[in-house]
Amino acid sequence: GDHRVAMAMAIGALGAESPITIHNAGVAEITYPGFFEMLDSLRL
After folding, report:
1. What is the distance between the alpha carbons of residues 2 and 42, in angstroms, rounded to a whole number?
2. 11, 39 in Cβ contact below 8 A?
3. Model pTM?
4. Is the dihedral of CA 9, 11, 16, 18 positive or negative?
5. Is 20 helix (H, G, I), strand (E, B) or coil?
6. Among candidates 42, 7, 43, which has minimal Cα distance to 24?
7. What is the chain's mean pLDDT, rounded?
8. Whole-angstrom Cα distance, residue 30 to residue 16?
9. What's the CA gap between 44 and 11, in Å, rounded?
10. Distance CA 4, CA 23 (A)
11. How far is 41 from 38, CA to CA, in rounded Å?
12. What is the pLDDT of residues 16-27, one digit of tens each?
């Protein structure tokens, strides 16, 4: 999977009304270790 697409979809999913699953999301670790932890900390 493409790490850029996984990261973009994760950011887009923040506004989703229902749960979103991103398969193979671990590829984001290639460019931003801890990306999903950081993203989760932004949730209100």
Report:
1. 23
2. yes
3. 0.77
4. positive
5. coil
6. 7
7. 90
8. 25
9. 14
10. 13
11. 5
12. 999 999 999 999
Which residues have CB under 8 Å from 10's CB, separation 6+? 22, 25, 28, 35, 36, 39
- The residue written with tokens 């290639």 in the block is 30
Tokens 């749960």, residue?
Answer: 19
CA dist list (Å): 36 to 28, 31, 40: 8, 12, 6
Q: Return d(Cα 25, Cα 13) in angstroms, integer.
A: 13
Give start and end residues of each alpha helix (H) in the chain: 3-13, 35-41
Provide the token pair at 10: 């994760």
C-alpha–C-alpha distance, residues 44 and 6, integer Å? 21
